[in-house]
Amino acid sequence: MGTIIDGKRVALKITDQVRSEVAVFVAQNGRVPGLATVLVGENPASQVYIKNKIQTAGKCGIQSFHHQLDVTITQKELLTLIEALNGNQEVDGILVQSGVGEVLKITERKLKGIKVLWCFIQMETTTLRVKEWEMIFVLLME
């Protein structure tokens, strides 16, 4: 038999732990950490996902910088925004969310030097017409 866990209780415990770590960060660095969120398109599930990340960040004492982009954005424009966010001293993490149908490929090769980047991009393969999720997690320390 499996063990039943209280998800809300676990989430509150993690939030409290992160809040404590944020307080230490603020004491050591003299500033609040920042999370930049980038949402490409208007997929409702993606909107909820980003909204929840922003709310949770706020509960932990992390400031958020949100960027809502149109589905017509080019890869070059997105990379330019990511590079600008990476250069922003208030931003410590970047989350890029692209919903159904918004296909943008981001590769590690093009993102050298990025602090922390999470990308959740739904891809559709042209040969099989099967949708799959591609998650890219890049952590490149300077």
> What is the total number of structural domains?
1
**What is the CATH T-level topology?**
Rossmann fold
Radius of gyration over alpha carbons?
17 Å
Distance between the termini: 46 Å
Number of helices: 3
The helix content is: 25-40%
Low-confidence stretches: 121-142
Strand content: 25-35%
Name the CATH superfamily classification: Leucine Dehydrogenase, chain A, domain 1
Strands across the major sheet, in which order?
2-1-3-4-5
CATH class: Alpha Beta
3D structure, described in words:
- With 142 residues, this protein is an alpha/beta fold.
- Helices cover 37% and strands 27% of the residues.
- A hairpin with a 6-residue loop joins strand 4 (116-124) and strand 5.
- 16% of the residues are buried.
- The model is unreliable at 121-142 (pLDDT under 50).
What key phrases describe this protein's structure?
single chain; 142 residues; alpha/beta; Rossmann fold; five-stranded mixed beta sheet; 3 helices; 37% helix; 27% strand; disordered C terminus
Helix-strand layout with pairing:
Blueprint: H1 7-29, E1 34-40, H2 44-60, E2 63-69, H3 75-87, E3 93-98, E4 116-124, E5 131-139
